[in-house]
Amino acid sequence: MNLASKLRERASQGRPVRVALIGAGKFGTMFLAQARLTPGLHIAGVADLSVSRARERLAAAGFSAEHSAARDVSEAIKTSATFVADDAARLIAHPAIEVVIEATGDPATGISLATAAIRHGKHVVMVNVEADALAGPLLARRAREAGVVYSLAWGDQPALICDQVDWARACGFEVVAAGKGTRYLPSYHGSNPDTVWDILTQYLPIADRSHVNPKMFNSFLDGTKSAIEMTAVANATGLASQSGGLAFPPASRFELADLLKPRAEGGTLEKRGVTEVVSSLTRDGRDVPHHLAMGTYVVVTSESAYARQCFREYNCLQDKTGTYAALYRPTHLIGLELGISVASVALRGEPTGAPIAFLSDAVAVAKRSLKAGDVLDGEGGFTVWGKQTPAAASVAGAMLPIGLAAGVKLVRDVAEGQRLTWSDVALDETDATVAARREMEAQFSAPQQ
After folding, report:
1. Which of 422, 415, 427 is nearest to 368 (CA)?
2. Same domain, 324 and 375
3. 251 and 116: one domain?
4. Residue 125 maps to a domain
5. H or E segment at 282?
6. Other Cβ atoms within 10 Å of 389 Cβ, number
7. What are the start-end ranges of the E strands in 247-353?
8. Are residues 389 and 298 in the same domain?
9. If residue 176 lies in a helix (H) or strand (E), which one and from where to where?
10. Going by DSSP bridges, is the β-strand pair 384-390/360-366 parallel, antiparallel, or unpaired?
11. 74 vs 44, 45, 79, 93, CA distance in Å?
12. 413 and 379, same structural domain?
């Protein structure tokens, strides 16, 4: 890709790509660790609600206390240091910042900060996939109109999946399915921040729970994060959401091509050209051998009999009929790989995945019977989980996006397992996040799936 050489060129010219990181969580800290070692990248600013925490994360990533003592962005640029603040707007507005990384994880904050960055002419790398699932197509359109780039975050699974899809299509293959692996059982949809420990401790030795956000971890287990991420993938690639959402079939990496093909041909899919997540657990809770829990995949086919013959000759993972083949990436390195997105948007003007349409949505489903007056607590919480749904069905049914299902009160009872609607909750239509979502729905027609 020549990104490393382009970065070295910028370094030799004394004008590195200057970056503002918003949110010093795990993803951001992992990025900082490698950004420090990447010629041509300069972390000019880090913003976090807790300045002390941001400084701690910089130290954990190998930066000295002196390095993070700059009094403002201008001083940081002059001294090749980093300015740390709790005011993200101040960083975004500085004219020397080229790329803003939004890594807060809160959809409302993400939409607000991305909008500000675009308005100030900055490229946006959106780690905050929750914001992308809620209004990504609108943000990407705004960025294009402003002459800047809006991009998914390399290192996170959605961007890696988009790359695999792009590779397949650039080779002339038909993409049958694309997605990732995760740890899943149907009972996990009811998991909450209290019961999540019963699941986590089965496979993660957690000695100190104080460093674990149970609500965040629970969003990975209860199916919400998978729905959000596959919504981002579908909207960025044109792949479809299956009408029933994700099915999470148990699959080893060697079974991908056999299972992830249409049901009419012996597989598990509704049709070709969809997103799907495979489980690393059988339905009785046993580990699937050679599973893909941390990886990504694409299943392809070709109308060329000769190409399908080559699948076999070159040891591709084919299905039993020799029609389909799978390629997979066994893991992803989160923020350690994020520099790829930063370099790509700044040096090539290209995103590492970006929404092109509104084809998929992640909607809120009741985890239990809810009563009028209950306050929803959003992703990973006690009240709702997120389900991937075709955007056409979501809009037609006025279904409530999971990104708007936090801190809002129910106005009527909702049964367990029911998808919530906009009319089930009391929403402030003047709220900027609600308005952005409404604008996206109005601007993007959702074709029937």
Report:
1. 415
2. no
3. no
4. yes
5. none
6. 26
7. 274-279, 296-301, 317-318, 324-329
8. no
9. strand 174-182
10. antiparallel
11. 9, 10, 9, 12
12. yes
Element (H, E) at 220: helix 214-221
- Mean pLDDT lowest for which of 46-55, 428-437, 439-448? 439-448
71 and 87 both lie in a single domain = yes
**pLDDT of res. 213:** 82
Residue 302 lies in a domain: yes
Structure tokens at 403: 């990104």
Token pair of 187 as six digits: 């009972």
User: What is the β-pairing status of strands 274-279 and 174-182?
Assistant: parallel
- Which 3 state secondary structure label does DSSP give 308? helix
Q: How confident is the model at residue 428 (pLDDT cuts 50, 70, 90)?
A: very high
Q: Is residue 317 part of a domain?
A: yes
**pLDDT reported for residue 449:** 45
Calpha distance 9→5 (Å, rounded): 6
Residue 128 has pLDDT above 60, yes or no: yes
Cβ–Cβ < 8 Å for 377, 176: no
User: Smallest Cα–Cα separation from 184: which of 136, 137, 116, 230?
Assistant: 230
Compute, in degrees rounded to 10, the torsion defined by CA atoms 104, 352, 253, 307: 170
At residue 212, the pLDDT reads: 67
pTM for this prediction: 0.95
380 by DSSP, 3-state: which? coil
**How many structural domains comprise the chain?**
3
Same domain, 324 and 230: yes
Residue 9 lies in a domain: yes
Domain of residue 289, residue span: 158-184+223-331
Tell me the per-residue pLDDT of 189-200, one tens digit each, with 9 for 90 and over: 999 999 988 888
Q: Do 178 and 247 have their domain in common?
A: yes
Q: Widest CA span of the chain, in angstroms?
A: 64
Which tokens in the block code for residue 118?
């675009």
Q: What is the CATH number of the domain that holds 430?
A: 3.90.1210.10
Taking residue 62's Cβ as centre, other Cβ atoms within 10 Å add up to 13
pLDDT tens column, 332-376? 999 999 999 999 999 999 999 999 999 999 999 999 999 999 999
- Verify that 309 and 369 share a domain, yes or no: no
pLDDT, tens digit (0-9, with 9 covering 90-100), for 145-202: 999 999 999 999 999 999 999 999 999 999 999 999 999 999 999 999 999 888 887 7
pLDDT at residue 446, rounded to an integer: 47
Q: Which of 348, 383, 411 is the last residue of a domain?
A: 348
Identify the CATH number of the domain in which residue 94 sits: 3.40.50.720
The three-class DSSP label of residue 388 is strand
